[in-house]
Specification:
The complex is a heterodimer of chains A (214) and B (393). In chain A, 32% of the residues lie in helices and 31% in strands. In chain A, helix 5 links the parallel strand 7 and strand 8. Chain A is built from nine helices and eleven strands. By secondary structure, chain A is an alpha/beta fold. Chain A folds into two domains: 119 residues, Periplasmic binding protein-like II (D-Maltodextrin-Binding Protein, domain 2), CATH 3.40.190.10; 88 residues, 3-Layer(aba) Sandwich (D-Maltodextrin-Binding Protein, domain 2), CATH 3.40.190. Chain B is an alpha+beta fold and 393 residues long. Chain B folds into three domains: 205 residues, 2-Layer Sandwich (BirA Bifunctional Protein, domain 2), CATH 3.30.930.10; 97 residues, no CATH class; 57 residues, no CATH class. In chain B, 38% of the residues lie in helices and 21% in strands. The two termini of chain B are 47 Å apart. The chains are: A alpha/beta (214), B alpha+beta (393).
Chain lengths: 214, 393
């Protein structure tokens, strides 16, 4: 019997940048994801399906075995509480940096060695908490769902933890990067049981994608 | 508290209703009978113990998972058991002082402070079997064999087995003299099979090239056991202790394949689950359609040391609630015999003899219409020719 394989992909930029890698493994969606409203996309291979979901849901789908493989940013994995996923390949797509940033005016006289009791606005609560507690710095973390750059300007927080790609948004809002937390790129993740139960097809696909990454 | 909240159970706590309870109990009895027929003696560890005892040895990782309360008689902290395996190890090393191998099994609820990431239950129904006092592949394979037999007995279709050996990684670490705090980084990356993270670690480390190559290789050393030769070749330059661990794993695989010819076996040298207390081979059972292992086990020698007697040991455990979920619902309704509410002494005798033969006889109650009673019966007792007969409803 042909083994089936479900791959969970993060909506948006990661999905677009994943397509060439999947194509290298001879996986091409049949439906046009831009026009189709289907949530499960068929591919040229009848036994392989793609599910397109919100990035933050990808680890959950894969962790619980609803998908065998997934493509998701390292930021989401770092924020995801449960472990038990295999992070097989660094796909080197959707690259950016996880940074601490603060207003230029604050940065002028800021001494990182004397940080204490910071107010941090972020979407990445767990990452921020771990990063600062590893440095022994007390924080008050304010969870936001978007437009983190606004928080210091509006007086909601002193600093932010966020993803930075080109840095244009930061500059436009007169913020500067002060601490580097991690380099981020997308990872190919696998469910631990699928690695065993479906290892033939999982290994094949992973190998082809790995070669495509180079 | 609103009325509606009052009967809600705490998160991760569930009750089992008649049909499922019947199925679960049948499973429980079948398993205990099976263990008994293999010579595994049942033990019943207590629900509550002093925390110190619970946390000793195997239980180190369970601190956060253990519900705690104060003993009003001694002022000491007690814990509700979160795992029965350490308790069984304690019982074995402390009370059953036989030199010969000891086989023990157990089955009962444990409590956890946090729901499992997967099952969501905070009250797993843990069953397991442990074999103490023997070092060797025979006891490891006996435990694997017993687990697979148990799963098949209760109707789990075609379990697969993932098998590994924590000694391989541990001896590589010892040999290469990695320092403990840096080793944790490598351990974490290997557990996640994260090639980029392992590579980053190795690039920064001062390990020799051979060790770098072998540590990096561990991630890919998994697959069908027929390809186990690849693993041996990849680690051929490692020292004698790694070779011994590899050889041990090879023997376990060979004997398991011989004992259970139909079983799908899969090896994985980076499977480091339970690394802190396991000392040898480790294994997990998987079934199609469930994203996580349904049973785990392995060797954990010298665990009884904390209780005064170091004994080699190997065993497995599983959560019956999760296993129950894998099974198709069996229709167990409509299997009783309805008996009239009043009758002569012959009726009472007849009922007794039917019950004695394993039938389910339900007495009608005055004022309750037969229609209600018949919902759980498929036959009834009727007097024909002065004699009570079982007839279809």
């Amino acid at each position: 019997m042909l083994q089936t394989l479900t791959i969970a992909l993060s909506k948006g930029r990661i999905f677009k940048e994943s397509l060439p890698l999947l194509k290298a493994a001879d996986i091409v969606p049949v439906d046009d994801p831009d026009t189709s409203r289907k949530l499960i996309l068929d591919t040229n291979q009848t036994n392989i399906k793609l599910v397109i979901i919100r990035a933050a849901d990808v680890p959950t789908y894969v962790r619980f075995g609803a998908a065998d493989l997934g493509i998701v940013g390292k930021d989401v994995l770092m924020e995801f509480e449960g472990d038990g996923l295999y992070e097989l390949v660094d796909l080197k797509i959707a690259r950016c940096r996880m940074m601490v940033a603060e207003p230029e005016t604050l940065a002028k006289n800021d001494d990182l060695g004397r940080w204490s009791r910071l107010r941090i606005a972020t979407k990445y609560v767990n990452i921020a908490r771990r990063f600062f507690s590893a440095k022994g710095i007390q924080t008050e973390i304010i969870k936001l769902y978007g437009s983190m750059e606004l928080a210091p300007l509006a007086g909601l927080s002193d600093r932010i933890v966020d993803l930075v790609d080109t840095g244009n948004t930061l500059r436009a809002n007169k913020l500067v990067e002060v601490e580097h937390i991690a380099d981020i790129s997308s990872r190919l993740v696998a469910n631990t049981a699928s690695m065993r139960m479906k290892h033939q097809i999982v290994k094949d696909v992973v190998k082809q994608i790995e070669q495509a990454v180079g | 508290m609103a009325d509606i909240d009052r009967w809600l159970l705490p998160e991760g706590i569930e009750e089992v209703f008649p049909e499922k309870a019947r199925q679960l109990e049948a499973m429980r009895r079948a398993l205990l009978d099976l263990f008994d027929s293999w010579g595994y003696d049942l033990v019943m560890p207590p629900m509550v113990e002093f925390l110190d005892a619970l946390k000793t040895g195997l239980g180190q990782d369970l601190d956060l998972q253990t519900f705690k309360l104060t003993d009003q008689l001694t002022g000491r902290l007690m814990g509700l058991r979160a795992d029965m395996t350490p308790q069984v190890a304690r019982i074995e090393s402390h009370y059953i002082k036989r030199e010969a191998p000891v086989r023990l099994c157990y089955l009962g609820p444990v409590l956890r402070t946090r729901p499992g990431v997967f099952g969501g239950s905070r009250e797993p129904l843990q069953m397991g079997a442990e074999l103490f006092g023997h070092v060797g592949v025979q006891s490891d394979v006996e435990i694997v064999h017993l687990l697979i037999t148990a799963l098949e007995l209760i109707g789990i279709p075609a379990p697969n087995l993932g098998i590994g050996h924590v000694g391989i990684y541990r001896e590589l670490v010892n040999e290469s003299q990695l320092e403990a705090d840096t080793e944790e980084v490598l351990f974490d990356a290997l557990r996640r099979k994260s090639k980029p993270d392992v590579q980053a670690f190795l690039t920064a480390s001062k390990l020799g090239d051979d060790y770098k190559r072998m540590f990096a290789g561990l991630i890919d050393l998994n697959g069908e056991v027929a390809e186990f030769g690849v693993a041996q070749a990849a680690l051929s330059v490692a020292g004698p202790k790694v070779q011994a661990a590899l050889q041990n794993l090879e023997q376990v695989i060979a004997l398991a394949a011989k004992t259970l010819p139909g079983l799908k076996l899969y090896y994985d040298l980076a499977d480091l689950r339970g690394y802190r207390y396991h000392t040898g081979m480790v294994f997990s059972a998987y079934v199609a359609g469930y994203g996580e292992a349904i049973a785990n086990g392995g060797r954990y020698d010298a665990i009884g040391e904390a209780f005064g007697r170091a004994r080699p040991a190997t065993g497995f455990s599983a959560d019956l609630r999760i296993l129950l979920r894998m099974l198709v619902d069996k229709d167990v309704s409509g299997i009783g015999i309805l008996a009239p509410e009043d009758g002569d002494s012959a009726l009472i005798e007849k009922i007794q003899s039917l019950r004695g033969s394993g039938e389910r006889v339900i007495r009608a109650l005055p004022g309750v219409a037969d229609a209600i009673m018949t919902c759980c019966c498929d036959r009834k007792l009727e007097k024909q020719d002065n004699c009570w007969q079982v007839v279809p409803l």
